[in-house]
Amino acid sequence: MQTSAHLSGKEPRVVLSARGLSKSFGGFHAVKNVDIDVLDTQIHALIGPNGAGKTTVFNLLTKFLQPSSGRIELLGEDITKTAPDRVARKGLVRSFQISAVFPHLSVLDNVRVALQRPNGLATQFWQPLSALDRLNEQAEALIDRVGLHRERDAIAEDLSYGRKRVLEIATTLALDPRVLLLDEPMAGMGLEDVAMVAEIIKSVARDRAVLMVEHNLKIVSDICDHITVLQRGEILAQGDYATVSQDQRVRIAYMGTEEN
Ligand SMILES: Nc1ncnc2c1ncn2[C@@H]1O[C@H](COP(=O)(O)OP(=O)(O)OP(=O)(O)O)[C@@H](O)[C@H]1O
């Protein structure tokens, strides 16, 4: 796939990297010696069978878990020992599950509340929602960007599952992350919502990096520039889809067959 950076002839730079990342739970090595580079303007997929260590890698990168060993850098800065809230403020943001959306607020109000944070209004949460009116223009632009304009005034809990996930992505984008981590963003969606979210992810990756855990290989092949395959906590293969899908070890480990 041609990213905007490729088209402009500029090599995308590494914005998030890990070296020798490992995590043990008791004597069990859930993640072993993982090296990963996430590049700006690229969509990077983390795939692998159940229990491969994908969620643990996400938790390590966002510092929800402290690594047993290894080093993590965000925008060239060592964040190995940085607390998760500071990592988020530095621009590495994970899209949370639907619980992050306020169910009784409208789509517009959810986005306006999310926009408070980058605008330094976080301590004014107790004020009436009308205090957020100056964020309306920005909120409308974000709502348009993710294609929720028709649902602008709908109450979040009345949205379909797919639209709730889109709203969740919008509230995460309100923080303007440099690196966006998405955990199975299309899980449980119908085909129409999958196609829409794929387009949203491609669009948001034009000016940031996206790292996503994804089980659906069709989605991975359609939108991801780079793929890291994990198995039993270790990297089995890395590269573009053509490279990893031709790898015999990936075929056996991930698909359980050398065929296809
Ligand atoms: N807190 C924990 N304590 C003990 N073992 C854990 C813990 N968290 C994860 N594990 C184990 O580490 C391994 C990797 O789990 P992880 O959830 O990272 O895999 P995954 O690739 O995300 O799997 P799935 O696709 O099923 O979500 C699994 O064997 C899991 O049981």
Automatic annotation (TrEMBL):
Keywords on record: ATP-binding, Nucleotide-binding, Transport
TM segment ranges: none
ATP-binding as UniProt keyword: yes
Domain ABC transporter: residue ranges: 16-257
PROSITE patterns: ABC_TRANSPORTER_2
SUPFAM superfamilies, sorted: P-loop containing nucleoside triphosphate hydrolases
UniProt-listed SMART domains: AAA
Keyword match Mitochondrion: no
Record GO terms (molecular function): ATP binding
Superkingdom of origin organism: Bacteria
Name by which UniProt lists this protein: ABC transporter ATP-binding protein
Annotated organism of origin: Hohaiivirga grylli
Taxonomic lineage: Bacteria, Pseudomonadati, Pseudomonadota, Alphaproteobacteria, Hyphomicrobiales
